[in-house]
Amino acid sequence: MFNVEKIRDDFPILSKNVYGNPLVYLDNAATSQKPRQVIDALVDYYENYNANVHRGVHTLSMEATDKFEEAREKVATFINSESSDLVVWTRNASEGLNLIAYSWGEDNVHEGDEILLTPMEHHSNLVPWQELARRKNAVIKFIPMRENGTLDMDKVDDLITERTVLVSAVHMSNALGTINSVRELGQKAHQQGAKILVDGAQSVPHMPTNVQELDCDFLVFSGHKMLGPTGIGALYVKRDILNTMEPFLMGGEMVLEVSYEEASWADLPMRFEAGTPNIADSIGLGSAVDYLNDLGMENVRTHEKNLTSYALNKFKEADLDGMDLFGPDDPEVRGGVFSFNTVDVHPHDLGTFLDRMGIAVRTGHHCAMPLVRSLGVAATVRASFYLYNTEREVDILVDGVTEALRYFRDGSK
Amino acid sequence: MYDLEDLYQEIVMDHNRRPRNFGEIKNPTNSANGFNPLCGDQITLQLHLKDGLVSDLAFIGVGCAISKSSASMMTEELKGKTLDHAENLFEAFRKMITRNPGDSYDSDLLGDLEILQGVSRYPARIKCATLAWHTLHSAIHDENNVVSTE
Fold it and tell me: Residue span of the signal peptide, if any (chain B) (predicted)?
């Protein structure tokens, strides 16, 4: 049973007060809070079996290696990868994207080739491709977006051509909450022989992910947005592609045999993991996956979908003067992300005011500068929800925004 | 109620709602654009400099209450003053806003501008308060006329 109050008890930080008010944490698209179980897993590693992995014959090293690889298994199963050796540890989604751009991109993107993106990409799924395209004289195209913040899928067939080598799309937009039909994009890409990359940074934490059903060639995501520690993320690549990719970083751990002249590479996935890996945080992420599995990702998605409906209604009822709420109004294609702008009150002032009420929101361009500009604003306020947020917190947010607008408009409190 | 008054003092709010010298001037001799890309704040500042005096100035732009009121108060403070005075004010203002422990600033010189000293307790908002002043510096010194706080 999905019991939010019980879940909240697992998160020590949620009982914190900010300026004397209970913390209302609504910046989950930036990073999630961590349950006691994940924090304990980190402490347990450092207190009981801290050792380097894959090379020691001693007891601690073997235990660390087992737990480290067990965490990889957990993550692989979580996204339904056919095998754990297709899951490469990274620092975060950004590193995964850069790894693909350098390793796969250098060998597979040529002059005149086309890369198709969406207009709602995070900078991390835009800038690496811009730079690759510059190096290769390749072309970047964008799928148009409709007024309601969804992709215009009717235009996709014309945009994917025989020159398209990659379609790279965010599964759920961090700025609008839009959930994109990445499976359909993948089918269309494959029909033309192109690859499909899914940026799962915002979707993997919030809904069931099945790479085999999505039939995606690449998937990237970050651990810290899904209850795990910062500094750990994962990259999934289909076997026939990963097998052909050259290592991105060279050094220890990633080699099989080394002479003074040359080296041969270790098996998958270690050939992409040079140097001592982030052992503690991998294990922490494994623990976060356990926590999410116990709740059930279908239940997490249902909870957030309900919360999204509730918030959409609340904002509609409040009918705040001069306020634009961006993104789709159908909770089926929207995650719990609420970006908005008010005509005359700047997002930073709103953010500072809300902070004084204990409400943590993000203000700015959310690392999606071109998108935010295309909305015709310089910045937005973004409230983003997770599995521990409640309808009561939505109420506090809507009341807070209402009060803030009054404060900045006529000075009354 | 939420103890916001140290940041949003009544005078700040007043300048935010009714910014002074908001617009353009005739025959500007100097101008500059300032950006705060992370917040999306933007300001265009025009000056008329004559015989070492700021004889007229005005600004337009978009920004938060802090950046707008700081620009408005700056223009009010500088009109008719010497360039040397402007430079000294900038220095004192910068010291007040980016206050390091043990640093002191010239409180007498700043006068009304001291109202913004609460900003120094909000590190994320310091750039908002200093944007207009950096833009002024650029306009006076003709350094490619575009400043960015990043």
Answer: none
Residue A101: which CATH number?
Answer: 3.40.640.10
DSSP A101: I
Report the alpha-carbon distance of residue B76 to residue A285 in Å, rounded: 55
How many domains does the structure of chain A reveal? 2
Cα A80–A181–A230 angle (5° rounding)? 55
Pull the structure tokens for residue A118. Answer: 């969406």
The SS3 of residue B123 is helix
Q: Which pLDDT does position B1 carry in this prediction? A: 42
Q: Which pLDDT does position B144 carry in this prediction?
A: 59
Q: How far is CA A396 from the centre of its chain?
A: 26
**Is the CB of residue A178 less than 8 Å away from at least one CB of chain B?**
no
Query: How far is A413 from chain B, CA to nearest CA, in Å?
Result: 7
Tokens of B99: 């206050």
Closest CA to A412 of B112, B4, B72: B4
Which H or E run includes A169? strand A164-170
Predicted confidence (pLDDT) at residue B41 exceeds the cutoff of 90: no
- The complex's ipTM works out to 0.85
**Co-location of A237 and A104 in the same domain:** yes
- Rounded (10°) angle between helices A391-410 and A297-318: 30
- Domain stops at, among A294, A318, A342: A294
Residues A313 and A344 in one domain: yes
**Residue A342's domain is classified under what CATH number?**
3.90.1150.10
Chain B residues with at least one Cβ partner in A under 8 Å = 1-4, 7-8, 10, 13, 16, 37-42, 62-66, 122, 124-125, 128
Mean pLDDT of all residues in chain B?
Answer: 89
Q: Is residue A207 part of a domain?
A: yes
Mean pLDDT in consecutive groups of 10 residues from the start of chain A, 413 residues:
94 96 98 98 98 90 97 98 98 98 98 98 98 98 96 97 98 97 98 98 98 98 98 98 95 92 94 96 98 98 98 96 94 97 92 96 90 88 98 98 92 58
Q: Are residues A186 and A275 in the same domain?
A: yes
**Which of these three, A278, A294, A310, is where a domain ends?**
A294
Provide the domain limits for residue A112.
38-294
Give strand pairing partners of A31.
none
The answer, for A352 touching chain B at a CB cutoff of 8 Å, is yes
pLDDT tens figures, B51-60 = 999 999 999 9
- pLDDT of B2 reads 44
Write down the residue that tokens 């704040």 correspond to.
B41
- A22 and A48 together in one domain: no
- Within a domain: A413: no
Q: Stretch B62-82: mean pLDDT, rounded? A: 95
Residue B32 near residue B50, CB atoms below 8 Å: no
Residue whose tokens read 């575009």: B146
- Interchain contact, A348 vs B128, CB within 8 Å: yes
